[in-house]
Specification:
three-stranded antiparallel beta sheet; Ribosomal Protein L9, domain 2; alpha+beta; four-stranded mixed beta sheet; 148 residues
């Protein structure tokens, strides 16, 4: 029986795929669960419209993410770091402190976007990469300065 998948089905296919399956599998499993429908031209047209809508939605979301990455790329944020008399740091600049500084600069980003291998424990300027997914990246400059 020729069917069209209405949802992604593990080990079978993705939304919109046309598959040949046994009658029993289609009638007893796929159809009752709303996972597939009989492959008719009407259903294929509806699936094509759903695919285009989903693609448009993804493109709009990517455009928003790219815009945010472009705006934040290259900004400089200052983060205080406690330094002892001997010049050693008492703390470190963590993702949480960077998020707080970025929010003060007017940007709202999720902490999972910050790609910080180790916390910053020295004074000075440090480039920190932000990963927005889908190959979209930005770099901010984090300046750790002595806390007064």
């Amino acid at each position: 029986m020729k069917i069209v998948l209405l949802k992604d089905v593990e080990k079978l296919g993705k939304l919109g795929d046309i598959k040949d399956v046994s009658d029993g599998y289609a009638k007893n499993f796929l159809f009752p669960k709303g996972l597939a429908g009989l492959a008719t031209s009407k259903l294929l047209g509806q699936i094509e419209v759903k695919k285009k809508e989903a693609e448009n939605k993804i493109q709009k979301e990517l455009a928003i993410i790219k815009d945010q990455a472009d705006k934040i790329n290259g900004i400089e944020v200052r983060v205080p770091l406690k330094i002892g008399e001997d010049g050693k740091s008492f703390g470190s600049v963590t993702v949480t402190k960077i998020i707080s500084a970025v929010k003060k600069a007017g940007f709202d980003i999720d902490k999972s976007r910050i790609d910080l291998k180790d916390s910053i424990k020295t004074l000075g300027s440090h480039n920190v990469r932000l990963d927005f997914g889908h190959g979209i990246e930005a770099t901010i400059k984090v300046v750790s300065e002595s806390e007064k």
